[in-house]
Amino acid sequence: MCILINYEMRNISMIEASQLDFSNISKELLEITFDGVVMVDKKGIIIYISKRYCEFLSIDLKNALGKHVSDVIENTRMHIVVNNGKAELAKLQRIKENYMVANRIPIIESGEVIGAIGTVMFKNIEDINTLHKKLNSMKRELDKYKGRLRQENSTKYSFDDIKGKSKSIEMCKVFANKAACTDSSVLLIGESGTGKELFAHAIHRSSNRCHAPFVKVTCAAIPSELLESELFGYEGGAFTGAKREGKMGKFELANGGTIFLDEIGDMPLYMQAKLLRVI
């Protein structure tokens, strides 16, 4: 499988027929300028197609001219552009197991659509194919991270889940609600089992970041030598055993949301110093 990508006409929404007097256009010029060109009339009938485009499609030029574009080009939308008069720029199209990005521009005369022109190029196919595979790999990696965030880092508790009627608890809720209205860092202090994580969840759910990620990091559970890469991520090949494509850190994953650093007191002092620059 490969990808083909087009160029030119990036900011064009239509072409006036007066600008496109086909009888005065050199076919040789079109062949040189573009790797693939096709023009159709208002009925979607092909009135011109470049030689190299025919070679790519494995069709004889004489057999292409005069036929409806949908009978010649797989998954084409040229006739649709003629019908609605709307340009389609940088649209993905699949032809013969190849993926290309196609431009389709309506041709206008006196306010009426009388045809359309499309262009593609076939250069650097292998480079583009490699880029396509890399982008797909990155998308799969991103989807995996998103799925893991939804599964593992969704908030479970709100202020209603924090039981207790004492003045201390009520006062903590008041302060926590105020904290939820800001983007400030919040320090939660208390003995083990007093509900610090409950408050962290509740603050996130009550904030304007509630639809963004909530990422919990149990600092004491991460080996000190891996803590920095876990929090801040790394570029591909940064150290022995690193993923080739690199890895996003917890702070980047929590961008726009909330990161909960649990048991931060057990973190090495040098890492606590680095965190001061962040929080």
From TrEMBL:
GO biological process per UniProt: regulation of DNA-templated transcription
InterPro entries reported for this sequence: P-loop_NTPase, PAS, PAS-like_dom_sf, PAS_fold, Sigma_54_int, Sigma_54_int_dom_ATP-bd_1, Sigma_54_int_dom_ATP-bd_2
CDD domains hit by this protein: AAA, PAS
Domain Sigma-54 factor interaction positions: 162-279
Keywords: ATP-binding, Coiled coil, Nucleotide-binding
Coiled-coil regions listed in the entry: 128-155
Protein name: PAS domain-containing protein
Organism annotation: Clostridium perfringens
Lineage, uppermost ranks: Bacteria, Bacillati, Bacillota, Clostridia, Eubacteriales
